[in-house]
Amino acid sequence: MASVLGSCSTAALASRPLSSRTSRASIPSLSLSLGKSYGKKFYGGIGIHGKKRPQFHVAVTNVATEITPAEQAQRAAAKENQRPVYPFAAIVGQDEMKLCLLLNVIDPKIGGVMIMGDRGTGKSTTVRSLVDLLPEIKVVYGDPYNSDPEDPESMGAEVRESIVKGEQLPVTMTKINMVDLPLGATEDRVCGTIDIEKALTEGVKAFEPGLLAKANRGILYVDEVNLLDDHLVDVLLDSAASGWNTVEREGISISHPARFILIGSGNPEEGELRPQLLDRFGMHAQVGTVRDAELRVKIVEERARFDKNPKEFRGSYQAEQEKLQQQIGSARSYLPSVQIDQDLKVKISKVCAELNVDGLRGDIVTNRAAKALAALKGRDKVTPEDIATVIPNCLRHRLRKDPLESIDSGLLVIEKFYEVFS
After folding, report:
1. What is the sign, positive or negative, of the torsion defined by CA atoms of 220, 222, 225, 227?
2. Over the chain, what is the mean pLDDT?
3. Are 174 and 137 in contact (CB under 8 A)?
4. pLDDT per position as a tens digit, 125-184
5. DSSP 342
6. Residue limits of the AAA+ ATPase domain (predicted)?
7. Are strands 260-266 and 252-257 parallel, antiparallel or unpaired?
8. DSSP labels for 380-405?
9. What domains can you pick out in the chain, each with its CATH number?
10. Exposure string (b/e) for 238-248, b if CB count within 10 Å is 16 or more?
11. What is the residue-wise DSSP string for 157-215?
């Protein structure tokens, strides 16, 4: 299958970065290539002034109400009237960043992307343009956590209780969510809030879900992630590690699933990320400023066209967007059948070991990313070229920092790859 991504050779990767090899003519080819645990129920009494109340059932009551068909139609109309986002297929250059994003959409278990680069290089624009390409998933209708009706591990407490009672769950299809986490967000807005007064007076754990609930089974995007407050970083670390968010207030505890693809972007000049947060990102993409004058003119002209008439501009890329959507859908369905030879697995682990990569996340992510790339190219077997394409992005940010080392960490990974795989 013809593809800009598929035609990347190991020699080309060693000689120059991916972001320097794309022209406007390559964009169409990119489009063408590319036993159950139900948890605990909430029972018990709440004591007031030292007196114990009689035992009663305390249900988790969400402030978010079910969305009626009329409300859905209203939201669809409002979305239609919103200013359209820039099409993903119209992004010129930055192949490395685009490839990392596509692989995470195909296999969310890769663990997200950290995008670092110069300001004004289209990082936020590219991430937000991903919204149009996100596939649909099956969710429980009206559930604020986007619970999967077929996976008890990603269900909210109410849905699990309904299953225990043998109730029939209403199911619908919806697009994967992309949630923006603003730098000024409070911890309550991120994690959710509990209405203490209602809990004490009515005996109900009234919980209003936050951004982590909305991002469950979706994407959580943090722009300028290196400027995020430390206490919010700790919240993200805890949720990313466990897949659950727990809110504790005045002796009341609420837990809900919070499994999301974490995408962050930032400018390295504004500060480095804490190592423990950096390690949570499955892949790391470096973005550079385009130096070719003609390509820069093309980018400026395309942006001017979009600003002048966004709907007309999006219409001109509609066919390419649909092809890319179909390709992502095919790759997601094809992914379980993709195999990687034992010999290649051993060599990947040998590269990680010889680079002194801490932990095993590097091994796991490299295997997953290589399989996702093979699925994107329509193959059922991983090749060394697939591994060469993704391994710098999977290991670059996991290497120990050496202040005396002048060579780029991505080139160190490539050199070790050739040494082991040759």
Report:
1. negative
2. 78
3. yes
4. 899 899 888 888 888 888 888 888 888 777 887 888 888 888 888 888 888 888 998 888
5. H
6. 109-291
7. unpaired
8. SB--HHHHHHHHHHHHGGGSPP-TT-
9. 83-135+176-291 (3.40.50.300), 337-421 (1.10.8.80)
10. ebbeeebbebe
11. HHHHHHHHTTPPPPEEEEEPPEEE--TT--HHHHHEEEEHHHHHHH--EEEEE-HHHHT
Q: How far apart are CA 149 and CA 170, in angstroms?
A: 9
CA distances from residue 115 to 11, 21, 60, 268, 397 in whole angstroms, order as listed = 24, 18, 37, 10, 11
**Residue recorded with tokens 């225990």:** 164
Which residues on neighbouring strands pair with residue 136, listed in sequence order?
175
Alpha helices in 52-94 (DSSP H): 69-81
Separation CA 315–CA 323 (nearest Å): 14
- The per-residue b/e assignment along 191-222, b for 16 or more CB within 10 angstroms, e otherwise, is bbbbbeeebeeebbbbbbbbbbbbbbbbbbbb
- Residue 249 in tokens: 């207030």
d(CA 215, CA 180): 9
Helix (H/G/I), strand (E/B), else coil: 223:
strand
N- to C-terminal Cα separation, the chain = 26
Beta strands 171-175; 136-140: pairing state: antiparallel
What are the residue ranges of helices labelled H in 265-408? Answer: 275-278, 293-308, 310-316, 318-334, 342-354, 361-376, 384-395
Place of tokens 């995008």: 115
- CA atoms lying within 13 Å on the CB side of residue 300: 7
Model pTM score: 0.76
Is residue 21 exposed (0-12), middle (13-18) or buried (19+ Cβ within 10 Å)? middle
**Looking at the DSSP assignment, which residues form a beta bridge with residue 249?**
252
Q: What percent of the chain has pLDDT over 90?
A: 31
Whole-angstrom distance, CA of residue 321 vs CA of residue 18: 22
- How many beta carbons lie within 10 A of that of residue 413, not counting itself? 24
Burial of 172 (0-12, 13-18, 19+ CB in 10 A): middle
CA 257 distance to own-chain centroid: 15
Burial of 29 (0-12, 13-18, 19+ CB in 10 A): middle
- The 3-state DSSP composition of the chain as helix, strand, coil percent (nearest 5) reads 50, 15, 35
d(CA 375, CA 155): 28
pLDDT in tens, 377-421: 999 999 999 999 999 999 988 887 765 555 667 788 999 999 999
What Rg value do the Cα atoms of the chain yield, rounded? 23
